Amino acid sequence: MEVFVRVAECGSFSRAAESLDLANATVTTCVRNLERHLDVTLINRDTRRLRLTEEGQMYLPRARELLQSVARTEEEVRTRLGELRGWLHIETPISVGHALLCPALPAFAQRYPEISAAITLTNQPHHMIERGIDVAIRMDHVENADLVARPVYESRYVICCTPALAQTLPAHPAQLNPRRCIGILAEERRHANAWVLEKGQERLEIRPGGSLHFNTSDALLLAARSGVGVAHVLDIFAHRLLDSGELAQVYPDWTTTAKTFYAVTVKGRASSAKARAFTDFLVEVLDSERRLSAKRAVSVRALGKH
């Protein structure tokens, strides 16, 4: 039943086999055995695509409900015993993984020693159902209506550089030389993203033209710490460097673009105890970044009840 549901979700026997870590022949045999047991055809196959029969369309939602009920029952028993166990597949953007998630994961492993977490760092999001991903961290949007997104953090860009370089910058950002600005490269593009700043009725757009540009925030911050230029980066990555004094925020009275981070699960698996445990842990990690320090106040806009 689980194999049939995954084939229907993936729209392919081979992709279902990959997501379940099974051989293609095993997936085909499972579906055939289920059809033989029910004495109906659930899936019509041809060389180009597969299509659920009328019986398959009726069987699919019932099968999902049964599988979810079984999973909830098993996890409730394990949760009561304090034993969440098994594989948990997580996908995260590279910068989030390097700066925030990976340093915190040993604490997650200590809290849930029976969970085997497999973490993929990538800036090219994968199809969650086909790849068998339990929880993914996404920024600003999700790619599929069959996913459930829980907002976990809202971050704004900060403009920062070394304290020594900050002393040499003009008072107004409109006078900032683009050659002194280093930026983040847009996906699949060769030019850095523009900086958008607003203050009252005034709006500025700065296009970085410095000597270095990167596709990850951690690399950008490493360059900024060396004094090579002024960076425009999400505050979630810069908090610690700003608090330590290695970097200084400039033009803090200007409003910058906001980005929302989501913990994303597949709709049918949103109630998974392992996924909930990881998402709650992720909120703890991000909340630790959100806390106000003794040196500076961090303004975070509320996300509301949902």
Q: Helices, strands, pairings?
A:
Layout lengths: L1 H9 L2 H8 L3 H15 L4 E3 L4 E3 L1 H27 L5 E7 L1 H18 L3 E7 L6 H4 L3 E5 L7 E15 L1 H4 L14 E4 L10 E5 L2 E5 L6 E2 L2 H9 L4 E5 H10 L3 E3 L4 E2 L1 E9 L6 H18 L16
Parallel strand pairs: 3-4, 3-5, 7-10, 7-11
Antiparallel strand pairs: 1-2, 5-14, 6-11, 6-12, 6-14, 8-9, 8-13
Can you summarize this structure?
This protein is an alpha/beta fold and 306 residues long.
What keyword list fits this structure?
about 300 residues; alpha/beta; Arc Repressor Mutant, subunit A; D-Maltodextrin-Binding Protein, domain 2; nine-stranded mixed β-sheet; three-stranded antiparallel β-sheet; 10 helices; elongated
Outline the structure in words.
The protein has three domains: 2-80, Winged helix-like DNA-binding domain superfamily/Winged helix DNA-binding domain (Arc Repressor Mutant, subunit A, Orthogonal Bundle), CATH 1.10.10; 86-153 and 259-290, 3-Layer(aba) Sandwich (D-Maltodextrin-Binding Protein, domain 2); 155-258, Periplasmic binding protein-like II (D-Maltodextrin-Binding Protein, domain 2, 3-Layer(aba) Sandwich), CATH 3.40.190.10. Helix content is 40%, strand content 25%. It contains ten helices and 14 strands. By secondary structure, the protein is of the alpha/beta class. The longest helix has 27 residues, at 54-80. Mean pLDDT is 83; it is low at 291-306. It is elongated.
